[in-house]
Amino acid sequence: MTVTSFGRVISVRGSLARVGILSTQQMTVSDVRATVGRFISIRCPSATIIAIITEVTSEDLSQASEYVATASVDLLGEILGPADRPKFQRGVTHYPTIGDAVEMITSQELRTIYTPTAGDHIDIGALQQDTTVRACVNVEEMLSKHFAVLGSTGVGKSTGVSLLLNEILKARPNLRIFLLDVHNEYGRCFGERALVLNPRNLKLPFWLFNFEEIVDVLFGGRPGVPEELDILAEVIPLAKGIYTQYQNTDRIGLKRVDPKTVGYTVDTPVPYRLVDLINLIDERMGKLENRSSRIIYHKLISRIETVRNDPRYAFMFDNANVGGDTMAEVISHLFRLPANGRPMTVMQLAGFPAEVVDSVVSVVCRMAFDFGLWSDGVSPLLFVCEEAHRYASADRSIGFGPTRKAISRIAKEGRKYGVYLGLITQRPAELDATIISQCNTLFTMRLANERDQSLLRSAVSDAAANLLSFVPSLGTREVLAFGEGVALPTRLRFKEVPLHQLPRSEATIATVRSVNAGHDMHFVSAVLERWRGATSSRDAASGDGGASSLGDRGAMSASLDAPMLQPSMGLDPDRFSLLKKPLR
């Protein structure tokens, strides 16, 4: 098919050019549809240059001009080689000259650009300019150099994440994926391929927390009291030494080893028992004669006991006085080693106490990186962080420092050790700029906030950064894809996601009132029973004294079959009958 030129190059400057649009008998301006966001071809003797229109105007044109409009274009790449074996490459080596013909890009040229040539690719949708051309992403480039999905609420961001992760699972069945699910909306998106973790079936022993993290737990997210922190920093290594002493002697008391000589620090991930920790604090308190000094020790013991006995923290402190080195089981459970047909973990965070969420995320991020580091990256892991701005805020006074540090470490060094990062956020301007700059593939959906758009403009180094001017007007499921994972900066539409893979929040209630649900005193009583059950001991009979010698190992194996949180489908009669049942 012969393509008619609709314009000519009238100026060139670096990676930018201006094109004069002609009015011809064969093709009017409206037929050409030479508008912003459209790809065009500039015909040069040795190559076909691919460019994108970023501005069209008819202002400042004299009546005698042969052009009906002018367009600004960004030069993106070029198609080289013979007609039967064309090859696309990014960047421009042959610049256009004044008068070179400009044509609308053909479907065949678009396929040359976007058809995968090497490596694993996933099909995520279709080009906005030509829906017959599939939009593919290079999995290796996207994962190994990190990626981010950005977009306001309601633009299809969660659905896009479900699509991307399901496609990645198909292309890389051996890749392990860990997803932080802030709003409990991804639990059903991955079927039998994902293990869903929540406070009811997670065991994350308190001794895996480093000093900053355990302090954050004990003080409820507030700054610690310096005097109490000094005591903790002194006794935690001793408690670890005492536990090791128990393990290394056939009979306790037969051979007393000075715990100070063991060489543990406050951050060494080895077990210790809370009873030993409290006994050490109590022992020091007993040696003091000054009553005001003893109060500090007493407050610290009370603080530890309060958190220890709070049933919301059971996932951390179950069997806290029994011990058991379960670190291998915890890492195997969290990061699916071996996968056993479930290479993905979805950690639902909505059910955790708000005061401890930052610490839990910090522990998981840190362990993910450290395991990759000490295993030399033999088992790659994709760590996906939903609502990333909550954990890695640009404002250093907001959030938990160790969490930001752990995510930043994955962003900067993770690719060397097979730990890859995926960030999802609706407020990129509030995300640490250093972290988002490490994401070399960006999927940008509609963003209305000017600060978010400004940050994107600084983060995108591509020649087609002018595409970002389209961000406020993108439709639902429409995406601007930039970076290493895509052949060219592209406006595309995510493909339809099957119904069973659509995210649905389990932490929210439908706003449509159920006609059949009776809101009487029995209903209120059932809700109160569940409410109180969440903050009271569920199993008073299971104290530490009755725990088996297996310690946390038994708890870990029992947790594998623990019931999952059920999704909220509105206050219907079935759910009302569930509310009447006591919470176990």
Describe this structure in words.
This protein has 584 residues and is of the alpha/beta class. The protein has 3 domains: 7-114; 138-205 and 324-501, P-loop containing nucleotide triphosphate hydrolases (Rossmann fold); 208-318, no CATH class. The chain has 17 helices and 18 strands. The chain has helices spanning 29-32, 107-114, 139-144, 157-171, 211-218, 226-248, 274-286, 291-309, 314-317, 327-335, 357-374, 401-413, 433-436, 450-459, 521-533, 552-559, 573-580; strands at 7-13, 16-22, 39-43, 48-57, 67-80, 87-90, 101-104, 121-127, 134-138, 147-150, 176-181, 194-197, 344-348, 381-386, 419-425, 441-444, 478-483, 490-494. The strands form 2 sheets. The chain has an 11-stranded mixed β-sheet with strand order 9-8-18-17-16-10-15-14-11-13-12. A 6-stranded antiparallel β-barrel has the order 1-2-5-4-3-7. Helix 6 (226-248) packs across helix 7 (274-286). The longest helix is centred in the middle third of the chain and has 23 residues, at 226-248.
Brief synopsis:
This is Helicase HerA central domain-containing protein. This protein has helices at residues 29-32, 107-114, 139-144, 157-171, 211-218, 226-248, 274-286, 291-309, 314-317, 327-335, 357-374, 401-413, 433-436, 450-459, 521-533, 552-559, 573-580, and strands at residues 7-13, 16-22, 39-43, 48-57, 67-80, 87-90, 101-104, 121-127, 134-138, 147-150, 176-181, 194-197, 344-348, 381-386, 419-425, 441-444, 478-483, 490-494.
